[in-house]
Each structure stands twice: as structure tokens, then as C-alpha cells.
Amino acid sequence: MRTHDLIVLGGGAAGLSVASGCAQLGLKTAVVEREHMGGDCLHYGCVPSKTLIHLASRFAAARGVDGFVRDGLSVPPAEMPAINKQIAGVVAAIAHHDSPERFRRLGADVYLGAAVFRSAYEIEVDGELLSAGRIVVATGSRAALPPIPGLRESGCLTNRDVFNLPELPASLLVIGGGPIGVELGQAFRRLGSEVTIVEMASQILPRDDEELAAVVADRLRRDGVRVIAGATVEQVTNTAHGRAVTVRKQQEIENIHAEQVLVAAGRQGNADGLALARAGLEADRSGFIPVDDKLQSAVKHISAIGDANGRWLFTHVAGAEAALVVRRLALHAGGRINYRNVPWVSYTDPELAAVGHSEASAAAAGIRARAVRQRFDGVDRAHTEGAIEGLLKVVLDRRDRVIGVQIAVRGAGELLAPALHAVKQGWKLSRFREAMIPYPTMSEAFGKAASSELAPKLFNPTVRKILRGLFRYRGGGPVAAEAREAK
After folding, report:
1. What pLDDT was estimated at residue 487?
2. Is the domain 352-458 a CATH 3.40.50.300 member?
3. Among 129, 210, 363, 470, which one is least packed by beta carbons within 10 Å?
């Protein structure tokens, strides 16, 4: 007799979603968490980082009113203890949703301790042996430390400790220009730190459309963030007042002083302490467990979801994977995961949101595509918000169906909803004109993009000629009007 129907390893977003669904559907479920219920997202990722970004935006807004104040305005650097207290309060306000008590009330057995496999069906937690016919690994990921000489010895920061600093660093060098590095780099700059971001790729946010990433990069520079793309960090050395960081860009070498170094250069899986070999499993070089489109590992009754499988390291993807596992395990309903249209948002200012193909990814996939662009300086609300530097791109296939949307503007993540439907349903661009959008809102950008594309097809001499013949219209159109004005 096994102790449970299902054992879930990891109490983060993915694991708790599976445990909640399966326990409520009647499976005898055990969830094992070695550190904090709620996982990285709650304690060291999404929640604290977005709180920090929000607080930093308030500092930026305060500085932005300087030109409207009679005697000027000087905004001092942030006091980190107060920032940390606010972050801790937000985490605490959300944490009760993930508490052991709540999951026990839902019917799950909660074990707080480190889990290791004893066999393909057995898990040991602090000397207690659990067993089940189904096991879900949802142990998450952690910051990967690149093999840079002196980096570990220098006492670098990662997302694990950056939200509890005793004081604001006077200067911060960020290794990695992906979403985490750029979000935190911009936030600390707005709080008062001098910030440099070093990225190996030729652009920051290398997964994103180059044109839209450039919108974000331009804002970073105007905020005072130094961005060094196409460069590598070769060495980190402790000094009396911080770290000396050697940066190479092509053949040029620069030594940069920074009080703190933050590493945001990718992630690695947390499966290394599970004794996977005892279950007949093996993680890849980055510590992730390979799975198929049913989220099953090489040992079919063991699934890996969320960051543990290394596919898409987003909380919303973890939720979708958890929902599939609940359907398959509790309802025996089958199903496969589809990552074709995964959306994502970089919570910079301006935000960068995307779903589906970019122009580059469409070309790489052999899809003949084109993009319709709408700048936000053509949207009235953007002028009132001071957000005219943004850009919307709608990527269309050869039949004018929407296959991708990218948005770079303040609040882009909130604007992504219609794009999700457009990409999933294969809308024609003209569908964006069907809804009556309130004025003035940023959402008007979608309708304006459609109008700019459709207008030449409707307002042209051929259409005017046909309508004059059918209905005896007497107007000559824009060309005739311009000729009259010229006289």
C-alpha cells in the first residue's frame, strides 16, 4: 500500500496549483516544500520585484515634477529599510494564499523539509518515507552563476538577496540584460544608484523584437543607466570599496568600479539535490528535467512542471502546465501542452509585452510575414501620459492574419489582452476596428494600426471613381481639394 495517490515536490506556483486541484478532486495528495511555501515567485521573484519597480517608479515620478515646482525639487536616494519593509508587507499579504494551513484545509498533506528519491515511487522527507503512483517535480530554479573568475568570491547579489539590502548601493553593475537584469537595473537607478548593465548579446532583452528592445534601451539611457551590449565580464575583484569588474567589448577592455554586482545571467534547475538517479532520471547540464508534451519525464509516472523542466520560466506558464497535469492525473482527460503562443512581459518602463511571432522569428520559421507599425505619438492618451515614445507592431502572415504582436509602452502588459485573442484565433487585422474603444485610451493604438493599413485600400481614386459612377458623387477627393487650396 502506498501512502498517497500523488506526491508533489515543490511548494511554488506550479506545485501548489497541482496540489490544490488534485486534493480538491479527491486524490490523497502530499506536497513537500523545503523552504518557503509560495516559492521563488512570491519570495524572491515576481512579487518583490514588481513591488520594487512600483516604488522606484514613484521616485521617478517625483523627479519628473521638478519643472513644475516654483522652487525646484530635490529627491534624495531611497532608504532601503523602508523599501524592504514595504516589500515584506506585500509578500506577507499574499503569503496566506500559499500557507500550509490553507492547503491542509484543502485536503493535502504538507511536509516542510528536503525531499530525496528513494526509488521511482518513494520519497524520503526528513527520515519519513512517502510513496505514490504519481509524482510531480516542481522544484523551481535559481540564478545561474556564470564561470567568471572572482565572481563567487566577491559575494555577488542575485534575486535571492537583492530585496533585503541594508542600504542602497551607491553603484551597481548588473551582469545580464534580460528581463530580470533590466527591470532591477532600472529600478535601482531610479532609487538612486549608479547602474551599469552588461549584456553578451548585441541588444538588451535579446528574446524580444530588436526595434522594440531599442525603445526600452533608449529610456534606460535617459534614466541614466549605462548599457554595454555585445560585451562580457571577464573578472570580478574585491576592492576596499566594492568590486572592480573587467569588461571586454570586442578588443577593448574596461575596468568598472561597482559597490555591488548583481547576477541576472540565466537560471538553473533545482533538481540537483533530489537524487534523481534513484528514480531512473537524469537532469540536463542546467539542472532541468526533460519532459515531453504531456509533461512526462523519461519515467512516465513522474512529471516535471514549472521552472523544473526548463521550458518557459514564467509563472503563468507554470499555471498552464499545472492545469494540464491536474486534467491528466485527476480527471484522466488527456491533453498536451502547447507553447506556440506563450505571452510575456518585461516590467520595465516602458514595458515590453509580446505574444506570438516577431518579424525575426517568423522569418526563422519560414513564414512570409510583414509588420504593421503604430507609434504611440499618434495616440492622444499617450500624449496626456507623456508616453509617446512607445511602439506597437502587429505581425501578419501572407493572408493578413495576426500571428504576433509586440508592444513597447507604459502599461504594455495590460494592453496585451486583445493581442492574445487575435493571435490565438488568427484574426484578420481589420478585427481590431470592430470594437468601439473608449476615448482617450491607449487601446486605441490597435484600431489606429488597423486603420493605417486599411485606409489606402478604401480611400483611393479607384474606389472614388466607382462610387461616383454608382451614386453620382461630385467630390474629387483629397487631390482635388489640395489643388483648390493651391489656387
Report:
1. 61
2. no
3. 470
